[in-house]
Design brief:
It is a single chain. The chain is mainly alpha-helical and 105 residues long. It has 2 domains: 1-74, no CATH class; 76-105. The chain is 69% helix and 0% strand. The chain has 3 helices and no strands. α1 packs antiparallel against α2.
Length: 105
């Protein structure tokens, strides 16, 4: 019998590395989203009823890209940071609702 047959070790599992490709694509997407938002404000011609939701949607999409790829929230083992971010978002919305209620009451 050869030495390979007597080896009782488990086969090594290769971990898949992400590589820089996703980071480059996310960086380019962030730059494009910023350029679109800047261009929409700079060149004008759009009503405020369209512009404000457009800017908010662009900001949300960019923050999701950055959380998923730059902060690696898409990977396993990030449940507690995601729960913390969700809780902070709920607290911020509650504070905003309370401030609006306080001002317009």
């Amino acid at each position: 019998m050869s030495a390979e047959q007597h080896n009782n070790e488990l086969p090594k599992v290769r971990h898949r590395t992400e590589g820089p490709k996703n980071h480059y694509l996310t960086f380019i997407a962030s730059i494009l989203l910023t350029m679109f938002a800047f261009g929409a404000v700079m060149f004008g011609g759009m009503s405020k009823a369209f512009l404000l939701p457009f800017l908010i949607i662009m900001a949300l999409v960019q923050s999701i890209f950055q959380l998923a790829y730059w902060m690696h929230m898409k990977d396993r083992g990030h449940a507690f940071p995601i729960i913390g971010l969700a809780f902070g978002f709920i607290i911020a919305l509650t504070a905003l609702a309370a401030a609006v209620y306080w001002v317009w009451w």
